[in-house]
């Protein structure tokens, strides 16, 4: 990189003559920084040539040989340049850095422009037209900034994130679930009841981490009313079994269960990693052992399929667990479900450790687990205690005290809007929340509260809606 940089710098880097002025007993002089600014245009052109492979392999070979001969000379030059730039490190920061960053932003924008173009060609409507316009405008802004030096990187990054999210929302969740599907026309969640179920886990209070719930697929055959518990029996981190009860009564009495062997050991690639699981239809979906993958264990065939989550530096092994107050071991990646299907919640280095939401789809014909869309939020994952999805909206909680958590944040994947003014308290029996998930079949929320299993009834209100209030 440094080499390339050097090649592109102006050929003569003459010393600059500046005149000084005596002021308040010090010598003050202005330095013209233009000569050190990064020649973005030339860098782009070179990169283009390399990537489009316009050069034949032979001439590339020649260049490599030439380069290796010139290497010592270049190294000396770099040393010389570095020494001379040393007193002007701040320029490095203000000039080189921002130009490079702007260049990268420009690249990302072009990608978004291409994506939106693709969507637009399939789905020409007012929303995609508006998006195309916005991207065009932002591209112009970035170009102008490269010239004018009035740069607000934060604003541009935020605009870029907004556009990316909007493009994902445009890709559309198969049917217009807000319009046609009656479950999701009720606005945001407005209240959460006191616990309607409270039970000590069948594995006892000493197993403090895991997940539990009710079959989450509306039209699932055999398993319609089944309840399940997925305990993390090894170090409160790893699990390899799923316990299923056919009825609520059996679950409450802890009788007549069936155990499924999800993985042969606690260190197998298919082992359940962290409190992450959801039973949906005939399969258990969960975060798989020490990976950036989501696994799907089929209860009928005992087979496991997996998909790798998208993003730069997907966090696992306690890189980005839920951490508000206490960190919950290995809660980096989890699966959630709502009226629209399955979701993965996690965080990436690329999104600065903020929560990322991906839509998961089981393609039963191709027998593959797919990620179809991904949104980036602005909420730092380690600053929340847990999260769940309902009607395409992500809800996040924080710790209030040993006996209460609170839903305080919502992010709507349909619009990319966020709201952090919610205050919906959740009563707890114990301090730690290992997992929290919503069930679309009965609108209940399930909490694995250290060794206790709690369920709540959620209600929704049209007055409580980001679309109406903002
Ligand atoms: C800085 O130098 C560039 C060319 O090297 C010149 O075009 C520009 O006018 C100079 N700026 C100032 C403020 O002197
Ligand atoms: C760098 O090179 C220039 C000439 O190209 C020379 O005058 C100067 O002394 C060198 N500086 C250092 C620190 O080596
Ligand atoms: C909201 O939930 C609380 C319990 O958390 C309950 O006491 C209250 O009655 C509920 N309010 C409504 C309007 O349902
Ligand atoms: C899922 O991914 C597979 C392989 O990448 C692809 O063949 C299939 O069409 C995808 N299915 C859907 C519904 O996107």
From TrEMBL:
Ranges for domain Olfactomedin-like: 183-462
PROSITE patterns: OLF (PS51132)
A GO biological process held by the record: signal transduction
GO cellular component: extracellular space
Keywords assigned by UniProt, alphabetized: Secreted, Signal
Cellular location(s): Secreted
Top-level taxon in the UniProt lineage: Eukaryota
SMART domains (alphabetical): OLF
InterPro entries the UniProt entry points to: Olfac-like_dom, Olfactomedin-like_domain
Coiled-coil stretches noted in the UniProt entry, renumbered to this chain: none
Signal peptide: 1-15
Name of the protein in question: Olfactomedin-like domain-containing protein
Organism whose genome encodes this protein: Eleginops maclovinus
Lineage: Eukaryota, Metazoa, Chordata, Craniata, Vertebrata
């Amino acid at each position: 990189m440094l080499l390339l940089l050097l090649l592109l710098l102006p050929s003569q880097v003459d010393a600059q003559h500046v005149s000084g002025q005596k002021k308040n007993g010090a010598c003050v002089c202005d330095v013209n920084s233009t000569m050190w600014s990064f020649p973005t245009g030339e860098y782009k052109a070179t990169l283009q040539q390399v990537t489009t492979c316009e050069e034949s392999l032979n001439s590339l070979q020649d260049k490599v040989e030439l380069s290796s001969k010139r290497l010592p000379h270049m190294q000396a030059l770099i040393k010389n340049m570095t020494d001379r730039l040393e007193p002007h490190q701040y320029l490095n920061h203000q000039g080189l850095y921002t130009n490079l960053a702007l260049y990268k932003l420009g690249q990302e924008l072009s990608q978004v422009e291409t994506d939106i173009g693709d969507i637009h060609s399939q789905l020409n409507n007012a929303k995609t037209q508006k998006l195309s316009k916005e991207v065009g405008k932002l591209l112009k802004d970035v170009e102008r900034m490269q010239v004018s030096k009035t740069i607000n990187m934060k604003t541009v990054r935020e605009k870029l994130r907004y556009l990316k999210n909007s493009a994902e929302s445009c890709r559309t969740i198969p049917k217009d679930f807000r319009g046609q599907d009656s479950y999701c026309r009720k606005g945001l969640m407005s209240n959460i009841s006191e616990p309607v179920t409270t039970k000590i886990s069948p594995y006892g209070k000493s197993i403090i981490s895991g997940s539990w719930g009710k079959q989450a697929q509306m039209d699932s055959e055999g398993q319609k009313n089944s309840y399940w518990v997925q305990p993390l029996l090894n170090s409160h981190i790893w699990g390899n079994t799923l316990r299923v009860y056919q009825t609520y009564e059996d679950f409450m009495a802890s009788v007549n269960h069936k155990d499924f062997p999800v993985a042969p050991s606690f260190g197998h690639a298919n082992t359940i990693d962290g409190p992450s699981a959801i039973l949906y239809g005939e399969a258990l979906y969960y975060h798989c052992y020490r990976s950036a993958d989501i696994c799907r264990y089929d209860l009928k065939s005992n087979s496991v399929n997996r998909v790798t989550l998208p993003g730069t530096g997907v966090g696992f092994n306690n890189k980005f667990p839920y951490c508000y107050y206490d960190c919950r071991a290995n809660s980096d990646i989890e699966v959630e479900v709502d009226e629209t299907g399955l979701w993965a919640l996690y965080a990436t280095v690329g999104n600065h450790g903020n929560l990322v939401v991906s839509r998961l789809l089981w393609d039963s014909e191709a027998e593959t687990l797919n990620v179809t869309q991904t949104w980036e939020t602005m909420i730092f994952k380690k600053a929340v205690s847990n999260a769940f999805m309902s009607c395409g909206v992500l809800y996040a909680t924080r710790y209030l005290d040993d006996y209460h958590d609170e839903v305080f944040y919502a992010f709507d994947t349909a619009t990319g809007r966020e709201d952090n003014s919610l205050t919906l308290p959740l009563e707890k029996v114990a301090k730690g929340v290992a997992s929290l998930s919503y069930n679309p079949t009965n609108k209940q929320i399930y909490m694995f509260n250290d060794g206790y299993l709690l369920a709540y009834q959620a209600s929704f209100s049209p007055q409580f809606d980001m679309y109406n209030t903002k």
